[in-house]
Amino acid sequence: MHNRKLWYGLAALAAAWLFDFLFWQKMGGISFVVWTVVLIGLGYLFAWREGKKPSAWSYVLTGLILGFALISAWRSEGLTRFTSIAMAMAGLLLLVTTFLNGHWVAYRLLDYITELGKTVWMGLSRGFGLFARSEDPNAPPVLPGQRSGVKKLGSVALGLIIALPILIVLGLLLASADPIFGDLIKRFFSIDRLPEYIFRFIYIMVGAYVLVGLYLHAVLPTQEAEKPDLQKITARPFLGAIEGNIVLGAVNLLFIVFVVVQVRYLFGGSANINQTGYTFSEYARKGFGELVGVAVLSLLLYLIFNSITRRESRAARVGFSALSVLLIANVLVILASSLMRLLMYEDAYGFSELRTYTHIFIFWLAGLLVAAIVLELLHRRGYFGLALLLTMVGYCATLGLINVDGFVTNQNIQRVSHGYDLDVDYLSTLSTDAVPVMVNTYLDIKQPKLLREALGAELACRTNTLDTAAARPWQDFRFGQAQAETLLRQNRAAWSQYTAVKDASGIFQVTGETKIYSCDPYQGMD
Fold first, then answer.
1. H-type helices in 276-313, by residue range?
2. What are the C-alpha distances in Å from 105 to residues 87, 435, 505, 509?
3. Which of 219, 251, 275 is the last residue of a domain?
């Protein structure tokens, strides 16, 4: 067992060093895919060496993790990359938690929190097991002076780890005492970067220690986990049915009054809104974010009262279910109101990344609300945690699949045919994910002249940035960015009449037939 633990340690150390190699002072791209594949591959290798069989659900989870890792290496848009990496990391943690049993599909909402918390603790504590002696009692005794090759290798590694900080301290003192020796140390070890090296060494060792604990917990759990009972009550209810129903009924009454107002003014069209003194766009701009917040808080309210309300009698259970379904139905109407406001806002002011995030979120939240109604009616409330997980996966996957920046660009370009202006300054703030849409639109000679001029100027700016950019390390490679750069290089002759030139202030700009376009993007739009 001791020999096997040593291999865990060496593999974890290699994975931690690989993290430093892939990500230190780099933006990240294909590197995250490489690191994810290595982490998962080591886990499956350890399971095979130990004779352990991963759960079939672990293969499904592995596929989801790798999918999100690939999205992060494809898209350049900020939130899409962040959510993809976050979902992949959360998936890795969930994979460690349920690697052998696959219980993640049967977790209640509280189980996800508690079990993932236990895994984090195991990562922080189980690494000490690497140094604990756990010899097989049936193995022959080891005679003095007899040591296996693996144990010797482990002793060498441990000795080097202990010696390294001692050598650093003593070497610094000697370098300070003798300038000739100090110059020699500087030439060989770049002593000016010594603090950086020390910091990197520390986080590599800490990362390796945590990875050891996680691998041991995934492949060699201390005890076999029991499958959660989805019908088991997670908390002891303490609130009476009458009190709980009064709260839900009062909230429902408030929502019904609000819905009635919405039916008359918002769903009734702009004529009714104008009677109140608001313009159509002003009314649309007010409160769609707050309404989404109300929907989220109402769902949380339902979950809380579902856990704390006693329902001993059949009448109490039916009454609670009826009020809960009515509450969620009202929230769906409020969510529809929020969507209507957002659509009006987009129609008046165009599309942006934030509005697109919210647009997609509303639909997935509505799906979660519908799932909550179905689970309540079927008395399968324990599956809400899985429904929430699938909603999060669906939302983050949608961001990656639709190409947010490409979608925003296409929608704003489509608005031009309806008489709206194209906000080129905003398009310049979007990532390279928007380039394919810009290129394809510009190459379409049927597009309006002013639109093609604006896009030609923007593409000239991006081509200039491409020409002046420093070479990136391979770790930062992203497929979508490479595709955009290929399109810019292949088609640069098509917009060659537009040239990016520095002005007096040193900012690149492009002079078109109708106006001057600045290549300096601004960050002031939501």
1. 280-285, 288-308
2. 16, 39, 59, 54
3. 219
Residue 263 exposure: Cα atoms within 13 Å on the Cβ side:
8
Question: In whole angstroms, what is the distance from residue 432 CA to residue 458 CA?
Answer: 12
Q: What separation in angstroms does the CA of 294 have from each of 31, 327, 414, 449, 468?
A: 40, 12, 32, 45, 48
Mapping DSSP onto H, E and C, the string for 455-512 reads HHHHHHHHHHHHHHCCCCCHHHCCHHHHHHHHHHHHHHHHHCCCCEEECCCCCEEEEC
Same domain, residue pair 208 and 256: no
**19 or 136, greater pLDDT:** 19
Contact (CB, 8 A) for 477 and 417: no
CA atoms of 421 and 160, how far apart (whole Å): 66
Tokens representing residue 65 in the block: 């993790």
pLDDT for 526 equals 43
Number of domains the chain is built from: 3
> 517 pairs with which residues across the strands?
510
Long-range contacts of range 76-81, CB-CB < 8 Å, 24 or more positions apart? 76/405, 76/431, 76/432, 76/433, 76/478, 76/480, 76/481, 77/353, 77/399, 77/403, 77/404, 77/405, 77/430, 77/431, 77/433, 78/431, 79/353, 79/357, 79/399, 79/404, 80/399, 80/400, 80/404
Q: Are 439 and 325 members of one domain?
A: no
Lowest mean pLDDT among 228-242, 263-277, 424-438: 263-277
H or E element at residue 516: strand 516-518
Do 197 and 70 share a domain, yes or no?
A: yes
- Are 265 and 358 members of one domain? yes
Contact predicate 150/8, CB 8 Å: no
Across-strand partners of 274? none
Q: What is the mean pLDDT of residues 346-371?
A: 89
C-alpha 215/C-alpha 12 separation (Å) is 8
Domain range enclosing 124:
2-136+147-219
Q: Which residue would you say has higher pLDDT here, 136 or 517?
A: 517
- At position 319, the amino acid (one-letter code) is G
pLDDT tens per residue across span 397-444: 999 999 999 999 999 999 888 888 888 888 888 999 999 999 999 999
Query: Where is pLDDT greater, at 516 or 278?
Result: 516
Q: Is the pLDDT of residue 221 over 60?
A: yes
In a domain, 338, yes or no: yes
CA-to-CA separations, 60 to 30, 95, 116, 123, 139, in angstroms, rounded: 22, 10, 18, 23, 39
Enter the pTM of the model: 0.83
Mean pLDDT computed over every residue of the chain? 82
Residue 524 lies in a domain: no
User: What is the 8-class DSSP label of residue 239?
Assistant: B
Q: Which of 451 and 224 is assigned the larger pLDDT?
A: 451
DSSP code at position 520? -
The span from the CA of 84 to the CA of 397, in Å, is: 8
